[in-house]
């Protein structure tokens, strides 16, 4: 009897152990089948591509326009001297002045053989301003003169200036140029303002002067541009 009881207890223990083992096995399988929760992967955030800073548009620098020539161009009246073989153009109101020009060849050898003067004044104004004059007459202000010297020989314009025939002014400069296609010089003030031009031809020296006195009123219609234009228009016939 006791043996049966022990056998039953042993069987119950075996069954209990088997049930526990089966239950444990079932739990393990269930855990193994559960899909793991995916851990969030770090998504690489694309760094924003740097927006290219617009480069400044290079504006072509305006090329300097060709400056107008120093001598203004004026329409005018031609003046021709057939005796001394030259011509020039007189912008209005400029005209040849009989009053200020040499009417005949002077006997003094140290004087030019001819001198033409060109003024912007009317004849009445010219007469009224030509006398009396203590030092210089207003009639001579803003006048162009053309002197013709016949004793130049083979001297060049520069040699004529260096010899003192053209006078001398403090600080003057002598610069090479051309007049009517011939070698010439211009004499400028210390500030660089030209006021005298010389050109030689056939033993004669032609001297062109701009007569300007800044201490006197400018005659109506006169200007430095017109003086320059008269000088620039000088040509040999």
Characterise this structure:
- The protein has 237 residues and is an alpha+beta fold.
- It has a domain at 77-236: Protein Transport Mog1p, Chain A (3-Layer(aba) Sandwich), CATH 3.40.1000.
- Helices cover 22% and strands 24% of the residues.
- It is built from four helices and ten strands.
- The protein has helices at 2-33, 123-128, 157-162, 224-232, and strands at residues 77-81, 86-90, 95-97, 114-119, 143-149, 173-179, 182-188, 194-201, 204-211, 235-236.
- The strands form two sheets. A seven-stranded antiparallel beta sheet has the order 3-4-5-9-8-7-6. Strands 1-2-10 form a three-stranded antiparallel beta sheet.
- Strand 7 (182-188) and strand 8 (194-201) form a beta hairpin.
- The model is unreliable at 29-70 (pLDDT under 50).
Q: Biggest sheet, strands in spatial order? A: 3-4-5-9-8-7-6
Provide the helix percentage. 10-25%
- CATH topology (fold) name of the domain at 77-236: Protein Transport Mog1p, Chain A
CATH architecture of the domain at 77-236: 3-Layer(aba) Sandwich
How large is the share of residues in beta strands? 15-25%
- In N-to-C order, the SSE pattern is HEEEEHEHEEEEHE
Class from secondary-structure proportions: alpha+beta
Assign the CATH superfamily of the domain at 77-236.
Mog1/PsbP, alpha/beta/alpha sandwich
Overall CATH class of the domain at 77-236? Alpha Beta
Shape: elongated
Q: Strand count, sense and closure of the main sheet?
A: 7 strands, antiparallel
Spatial separation of the terminal alpha carbons: 171 Å
Q: How many alpha or pi helices?
A: 4
Number of strands: 10
Computed over alpha carbons, the radius of gyration is 55 Å
Low-confidence stretches: 29-70
Mean pLDDT: 78
């Amino acid at each position: 009897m006791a043996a049966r009881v022990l056998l039953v207890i042993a069987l119950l223990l075996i069954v209990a152990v088997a049930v526990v083992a089966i239950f444990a096995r079932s739990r393990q399988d269930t855990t193994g089948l559960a899909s793991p929760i995916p851990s969030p992967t770090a998504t690489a955030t694309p760094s924003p591509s740097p927006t290219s800073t617009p480069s400044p548009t290079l504006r072509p620098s305006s090329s300097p326009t060709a400056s107008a020539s120093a001598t203004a161009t004026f329409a005018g009246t031609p003046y021709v001297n057939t005796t001394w073989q030259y011509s020039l153009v007189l912008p209005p109101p400029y005209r040849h002045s009989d009053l200020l020009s040499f009417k005949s060849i002077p006997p003094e050898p140290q004087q030019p053989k001819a001198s033409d003067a060109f003024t912007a004044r009317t004849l009445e104004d010219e007469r009224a301003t030509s006398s009396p004059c203590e030092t210089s007459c207003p009639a001579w202000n803003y006048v162009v003169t053309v002197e013709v010297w016949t004793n130049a020989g083979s001297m060049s314009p520069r040699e004529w200036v260096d010899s003192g025939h053209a006078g001398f002014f403090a600080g003057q400069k002598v610069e090479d140029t051309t007049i009517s296609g011939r070698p010439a010089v211009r004499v400028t003030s210390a500030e660089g303002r030209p006021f005298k031009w010389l050109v030689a031809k056939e033993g004669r020296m032609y001297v062109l002067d701009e007569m300007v006195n800044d201490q006197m009123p400018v005659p109506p219609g006169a200007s430095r541009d017109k003086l320059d234009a008269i000088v620039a228009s000088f040509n040999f016939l």
